[in-house]
């Protein structure tokens, strides 16, 4: 819909008059305007514009949506002839852009942007087909969040984002001078485009808190392709990722994510409890649901190496974890905080034929200590083993020679069966479950003071009195149960349970053979075989 007028400022009344001889001025108010592929292939719609045109050029001022984004805009076109480098069009647009609008433009932030951002775009286009668009966004009134790295920028905090787009005949071919600056963040880089869509994101410099890296992200060329991430740098702060011992369970709707592969190398990595790993080399292939293949190498402390491998095996995957500082690795990954030292070996297999992808395996730990374990201290205190309690709760810790724990992990629930540990002071067993998602524990087992083991010969008929002044000496233990929240569980102990010699042989035999013990009996009041 148009209202306006046309004025002929020069109209020679001659037989040989040409179009160039006629001078025209046009002014109009136009509504409901649609122009296809106006800027970078994006349409202008619902325009309400004021036009001022002449033989020299065209000027437009008004409001419209460009690429689905409401904007105030100006548009100027030069009608004069010139070389390929002549700027023939200039466009300025300013509007509020949110995440949905960026997704429509193929520039989604995957939920990092919260709210709308005032953006200004200044574009110019040459006669030869080259175009340049300068983008500026003020992030002061917008929140930013990145859960994977525990980053938040609240509304009101200063922040800006700038980028320079290069176009070839209305197709974006490159993004230069990309920079995002906000509280604790300084990101510089760019992007390559294919078919008008971003194909490679360059990370020239990324400084995010204590993270400093560079690299690139190759975006999928078609549906189903994986993101390919290659990054390296002097430091990575992954403490928030490992800060919760709860293993993420499978999404309820079983909706797959986006597949990706990662090749990362960092000189220094901060993990849970700000434990440092150095010389980290990480390779991961993720299909959007599970890690199909992974390999991690690094050093804990000054010289303790660790290896983690996930490899395809049969209808599932095989897991191997090795380190000579098991306690350090368990603390660094947020699994357990109470273990110190120890040679750790974890082997297991995922059953990927099951939709739950359960992991079944065995954890073995040699020569380690338990320290600052309140629940463990409660249990020992109930048995009146106060010297041992002091060692665990306030002292250097209780040394254990070996622990073997068969386990099954499925849907965020860790199930223990025939878990056993032995020290110079204690022998213990455990079975039950730990809900890692809900931070709940339900574990039962038996505790046997180890000094009673040394009096087992006192049970031998006739000659037993030669080894123990008390008939049946050593046949004493306590059954226990730990239930409730992991942070402060309820602990109950029955110190009157008697054990059969067969049970004690089962406790010892497993450690002598190097594998998990199979009990030959149970505490009094339970089943025996």
Characterization of this structure:
There is one protein chain. The chain is mainly β. The chain has five helices and 31 strands. The protein has a 28-stranded mixed sheet that branches. A three-stranded antiparallel sheet has the order 7-10-11, with no helix packed on it. Strand 8 and strand 9 form a beta hairpin.
Topology:
Elements: E1 2-10, E2 23-39, E3 42-54, E4 57-66, E5 69-78, E6 87-97, H1 99-104, E7 113-114, E8 117-126, E9 130-138, E10 143-146, E11 151-153, E12 159-168, E13 171-182, E14 185-194, E15 197-208, E16 211-218, E17 227-237, E18 260-270, E19 276-286, E20 291-300, E21 304-313, E22 316-323, H2 326-332, E23 339-340, E24 343-351, E25 359-370, H3 374-382, H4 386-393, E26 398-410, E27 413-422, E28 426-435, E29 440-449, E30 478-485, E31 490-494, H5 501-513
Parallel strand pairs: 17-18
Antiparallel strand pairs: 1-2, 2-3, 3-4, 4-5, 5-6, 6-8, 7-10, 8-9, 9-12, 10-11, 12-13, 13-14, 14-15, 15-16, 16-17, 18-19, 19-20, 20-21, 21-22, 22-24, 23-25, 24-25, 25-26, 26-27, 27-28, 28-29, 29-30, 30-31
Helix pairs in contact: 3-4
